[in-house]
Write a structure and sequence with these properties.
heterodimer, A: alpha/beta, B: alpha/beta, 16-stranded mixed β-sheet, two-stranded antiparallel sheet, 5 helices
């Protein structure tokens, strides 16, 4: 008789703590022109931004919900507060941050990570950044890393206006339009030509408020021959009502520049994570997306790369872990426009305890993209038959001068592999743990050590004989 | 001639609408006549009934499969038919509305037909094959003068059926809709070569309900100069230890266009099932003309104990292969010609009919 082993859920206890938001400013729930006007006034937007918000709101009303992907019926926008602000201004030293917020980020390890491994940190609590700091040596290189609101009014205001929501226009989809209307918080990064930032920058997003939305906007612009690693982390405590995350990330990578964008997403299981990320690459530029999706009740996340410049390169390495009550629809899009562009996709997904994991992607190779190469590898691991795992990879190829390879596999942990490992003296439970860890390792080895450890903790496997 | 627009070749789940891959729209021009010519071997009977009667009869045969109005993660259009086909209900509705009769061919249980027999269909036709338990049959469909064929096969316990279909003649359009239902230990092989016609819509829906049932198929196509091919392959593996294996072998010449939707759908309870699907597209353009190649290979899975694999390779003829063949005395043009012949010919050779093999060879010679 075979022994059935159970693989435990991700341990979320370190993220599941909350503080009352009694001293917070909270805008009325719902999405109306009055609320958007109020938000714009509260944030002291420039006039163009106020108009942009209202036009986006108009689009939000007009654009229908998508007819594909996971159901978002449980998301009632009339009960989502789009703006919740802690009663503090942004600080650049931890001592000035209010105690409960400081406790939150300390429990999440953000100040420690900043000291150990980061060139700069932005910490957003609900709708606004509460802490922001950049190391002196990075500032001296001419790198700009600031909260988004400041960037709208400072030296780079014209640049921000030129690039804001051009890659992700509000016409793109319903939640891009919503983002355009109610965005708040986020970061602006500018790396000048020939500047290489040797240690990463990080933004951490914490959504503490119940029934609220977070709509931060991240805009990163790399000049020519520059290099940056940007890390994004997010978490929230669990509530019994829906929360929404509809952020936007726009990445402009200049000629011969390189950007690595790493994300560990660990929202709570009442979260609808409808985030949009998009990058555009100029000639010879490259991007590496490293993405770990572990949280959320429903997730739609497809980081997109537009390979506009000749010889540009994109790489996507992602892992999704869908447990009980989760429906995570993740993947990527690659749009090849320039000549001799290349993209590599390596995606893994694990599902268990009734979780639904979907890998969805599209590879588009336009007529102009002669000499392009694409390699796609997606693997899914089913840990029980209560779960569901789908792969939906589309390819649209319009040039005869290209090479595309695609491979997808789905299955469970192989009995033969377990048997082999046991024949080498390894316990069955350890063998299974090794296989699952090995399955996830292509992502964890791409992360800085501290984050790889965090990810491995997230996939901590509790093996017990049932 | 009446004109109809029919939505065909649905994906079982939807994806981004802007990719225009969720389904296809086909124009059907009603043709005046249809005929089915065959010389059935001894012991095999046939009868002509109206399409709805035949459909009801076959739906009753596959009665153990419940009609699904909702499957987790899928849209309501999923599985509108009780007896699945690849192109979907739109074709059934068209046939019903056009009063196209159905031919039911009955292969009794235990009949062993080692020699293949041929069925020639013209115009718009509908054929239903009932393969009795433990029978053995090898059936060739000549589609040279076909505009539309709807073919359903019910494979009873332990039956072994091989179906071959071929088309080389150039006409405006071909619609080829196939559906099969496999009982326990039934085995079905399907070889299809679709070359002629400006537009070809083909669908393959395979419902593997019976434990240990087997399905193997190959499809070859060649598209160029404004020709379009739209394919939908959907295999549902419900039974335990079922095995499906499909190979798509295509050649795209200058200006050719192809869309392939291929789905392996493992249902809960299909323990030990294996599903494999491979796509190999050879891009053999001579000029810098564009091609259009759309592919969407899906794996849908709600059972842990399965092994599903998709592979796709889309690209030009490897220059190293050409170089190797040049070193053996072939010119580059001869090498290209041989490789295309080999790519399509491997499927054509599985069809046990010399006339069809010759027609395929002649077609390829003329085209390349």
């Amino acid at each position: 008789m075979s022994i059935k082993f159970n693989i435990g859920d991700i341990d979320r206890s370190i993220y599941d703590f909350k503080y009352e938001d009694k001293d917070f400013y909270r805008i009325k729930a719902g999405i109306t022109p009055e609320i958007v006007e109020q938000l714009s006034e509260d944030k002291n937007d420039p006039e163009w931004m106020r108009e942009f918000r209202l036009k986006s709101l108009d689009l939000y009303y007009k654009i229908p919900l998508p007819n594909w992907g996971p159901s978002i019926e449980g998301l009632d926008m009339d009960h989502i507060a789009t703006y919740v602000r802690p009663n503090t201004s942004m600080q650049d030293d931890w001592d000035s941050v209010p105690q409960d917020i400081k406790d939150t980020f300390e429990r999440l390890g953000i100040p420690q990570a900043e000291r150990a491994a980061l060139a700069g940190v932005g910490a957003q609590y609900d709708s606004e950044l509460v802490y922001h700091n950049v190391k002196e040596e990075v500032l001296k290189q001419g790198v700009i890393y600031t909260d988004f609101e400041s960037s709208l009014k400072g030296e780079y205001a014209d640049m921000v206006k030129e690039y804001f929501m051009k890659l992700i226009p509000p016409t793109d989809h319903k939640f891009a339009a919503l983002h355009g209307a109610v965005w708040s918080g986020g970061s602006f990064v500018y790396v000048p030509d020939n500047v290489k930032v040797s240690i990463p920058l990080q933004s951490y997003f914490r959504l503490n408020a119940k029934g609220a939305g977070q709509f931060e906007h991240t805009l990163i612009i790399l000049g020519e021959n520059s290099d940056l690693h940007f890390i994004e982390g997010c978490s929230a405590p669990k509530y019994n009502v829906a929360n929404l995350h509809a952020g936007a990330v726009e990445l402009y990578v200049g000629k011969n520049s390189h950007l690595r964008y790493s994300t560990i997403e660990n929202w709570s299981k009442n979260m609808y994570n409808l985030n949009t990320k998009r990058a555009i690459l100029e000639e010879g530029a490259s991007i590496e997306w490293v993405s770990g999706s572990f949280g959320s009740h429903v997730g739609n996340l497809y980081p997109t790369t537009i390979l506009r410049g000749d010889n540009s390169k994109a790489e996507f390495t992602g892992i999704t872990f869908a447990g009980q009550g989760q429906n995570l629809d993740t993947g990527t899009r690659m749009i090849h426009i320039g000549k001799s562009t290349s993209s590599i996709i390596d995606s893994k997904s694990i599902c268990k305890s009734g979780g639904i994991s979907t890998y969805r992607s599209s590879i588009e190779i336009r007529e102009s993209a002669a000499g392009s190469k694409v390699s796609v590898n997606c693997a899914s691991l089913m840990l029980d038959s209560d779960s569901r795992s789908d792969t939906i990879p589309a390819m649209d190829i319009r040039t005869p001068y290209c090479d595309v390879g695609h491979e997808a596999t789905i299955g469970r942990i192989s009995d033969k592999t377990i048997f082999y490992l046991m024949s080498r003296g390894i316990k069955e439970s350890d063998a299974r743990a090794m296989i699952v860890s090995g399955f996830a390792s292509p992502v964890s080895k791409e992360l800085p050590l501290e984050y790889a450890t965090e990810m491995n903790n997230l996939i901590r496997l509790e093996m017990d004989e049932g | 001639m009446a004109e109809n627009k029919v939505t065909v070749n649905h994906l079982p789940v939807l994806t981004w609408n802007r990719l225009k891959i969720n389904s296809a729209e086909a124009d059907i021009s009603k043709t005046a006549c249809n005929s089915i010519i065959y010389d059935l071997p001894k012991g095999i009977s046939s009868r002509r009934v109206d399409f709805e009667t035949a459909l009801s009869e076959f739906e009753a045969l596959s009665g153990s499969v419940r009609r699904e109005s909702f499957v987790a993660g899928k849209v309501p259009i999923y599985n509108e038919q009780s007896f699945l086909t690849g192109m979907g209900k739109g074709v059934d509705d068209y046939i019903t509305a056009s009063a196209i009769p159905a031919e039911i061919i009955d292969i009794p249980a235990g009949v062993n037909l080692s020699e293949p027999f041929k069925i020639t269909v013209s115009g718009e036709s509908s054929v239903f094959i009932k393969a009795g338990s433990d029978c053995l049959a090898d059936i060739i469909f000549d589609l040279e003068n076909t505009d539309l064929i709807s073919l359903r096969v019910f494979s009873d316990f332990g039956s072994q059926v091989k179906i071959s279909m071929a088309r080389t003649k150039n006409k405006a359009q071909l619609m080829s809709d196939f559906g099969a239902y496999l009982q326990k230990s039934a085995s079905l092989e399907l070889y299809t070569v679709l070359l002629g016609a400006e537009k070809i819509y083909s669908g393959f829906g395979i419902d593997m309900t019976g434990d240990n049932s087997r399905f193997k198929g190959e499809l070859a196509y060649l598209r160029g100069y404004g020709e379009e091919q739209d394919i939908n392959y959907n295999v549902i593996q419900r039974g335990r230890e079922t095995v499906s294996d499909f190979n798509f072998r295509g050649v795209l010449l200058d200006g050719g266009s192809k869309t392939l939707r291929d789905t392996i759908d493992f249902r809960r309870g299909a323990t030990g099932a294996i599903g494999n699907e491979q796509e190999n597209v050879l891009i053999a353009t001579k000029k810098e003309n564009s091609i259009l190649n759309k592919s969407i290979p899906l794996i849908l899975c709600e059972e842990e104990d399965v092994d599903g694999r998709h592979g796709a390779s889309i690209g030009r003829i490897d220059p190293r292969t050409i170089l190797y063949m040049e070193s053996r005395g072939f010119t580059p043009e001869e090498a290209r010609r041989l490789l295309i012949h080999g790519h399509i010919g491997s499927v054509a050779r599985s069809i046990p009919d010399k006339n069809i093999n010759k027609a395929v060879e002649e077609y390829l010679e003329a085209r390349i």
